[in-house]
Amino acid sequence: MIDKYKTPLEEECDHIEKITYCVALRRSSLAETLSKMQQHLILSIFLASFLKICTGADWCYQSQHTCATPCNGPEKWDHANIACGGRVQSPINIVHRKTLPDERLTPFQFKQYQDSFEGLIKNNGHSVQVSVPHEAYVFGGDLETPYKAVQFHLHWGKNGGPGSEHTIDGEQYPMELHIVHMKQQHSNLGDALKDPSGVAVLGFFYEESLSANRKYDPIVKALQSISTTGTQTSLSAVSLEQLIPPQQNLTNYYRYKGSLTTPNCTESVVWTVFEKPIPLSRDQLRVFSDLQFKDGKNMVGTFRPVQPLNGRVVYRSGGAVVLASAALLVASVATVMGLSQPN
């Protein structure tokens, strides 16, 4: 067998071929790596775009949140406005046994709440809102100063089901009324919200009753004309007084420091939540669910979930009731002792 010896030139050529082959392999590997990186980049961009489409920049209620309706649900409201992630947010669950009595929480005084007005009622895409065009005030109840009524709106569930924003011992009522006030020295709500206690909201629960509440006829009737977002209509003569319980039934309430319950979630609200609910029939409660969000779906579940207290204290009124009960007890004991004394 004869060995074949390579000349130096042949060996050099073999060496060059090996180098060329290695370079080609490395180029192929590099191209493959770059291709994979591009694929990952494209996929990341696509996913980011998809998530943006599914969340969106606008805010919405949980009942609206689908990929077909681009919006940020309540758990992502801080994406729409960072203040919604604050530590003094509303609404809350009020646990009665954990509230503290405060004798400064005396009965409220209402000025010109009894005056009738003909305002505009509007479907703003999130709720029903009515501006208060005249001078109506609330004072007392340990408020710093008289507060002027600006507007009122409502929050509800679905067809009369649970829908209030605040809850009492975990119980959610069918609907909740918010009458928004600002300190009388402020010229508009925007300025009032810059004041740490510039806004006072009175919150009232609703409960289902067997009969219709005729005082709500003007509002219930007007809802039929504002089913779609952005529509508004004239409201027949109505007063704030007729929408809430009689004044003698407004002595029991809760007080805490909180925020607006929709974005911008500004933490400038002195909250008062009354115990006594307003009666409405099931048909009256259901008519609110016939309104529509901007996408044409039924406007239901228009409430924000309760927020953490984060160390806040909730106070309750009733000091006068306690004192009256104590006085009654003393009088009863005195009467019994008097009757038990010998003649």
Automatic annotation (TrEMBL):
Interacts with SLC4A4. Its EC number is 4.2.1.1. PANTHER family: CARBONIC ANHYDRASE (PTHR18952), CARBONIC ANHYDRASE 4 (PTHR18952:SF95). Keywords: Cell membrane, Disulfide bond, Glycoprotein, GPI-anchor, Lipoprotein, Lyase, Membrane, Metal-binding, Signal, Transmembrane, Transmembrane helix, Zinc. It comes from Coregonus suidteri. It comes from the Eukaryota. The chain crosses the membrane at residues 313-339. It is a lipid-anchor; GPI-anchor. Catalyzes the reversible hydration of carbon dioxide into bicarbonate and protons and thus is essential to maintaining intracellular and extracellular pH. May stimulate the sodium/bicarbonate transporter activity of SLC4A4 that acts in pH homeostasis. It is essential for acid overload removal from the retina and retina epithelium, and acid release in the choriocapillaris in the choroid. Reversible hydration of carbon dioxide. Residues 57-318 form the Alpha-carbonic anhydrase domain. This is Carbonic anhydrase. It is found in: Cell membrane. Pfam families: Carb_anhydrase. One of its GO terms (cellular component) is plasma membrane.
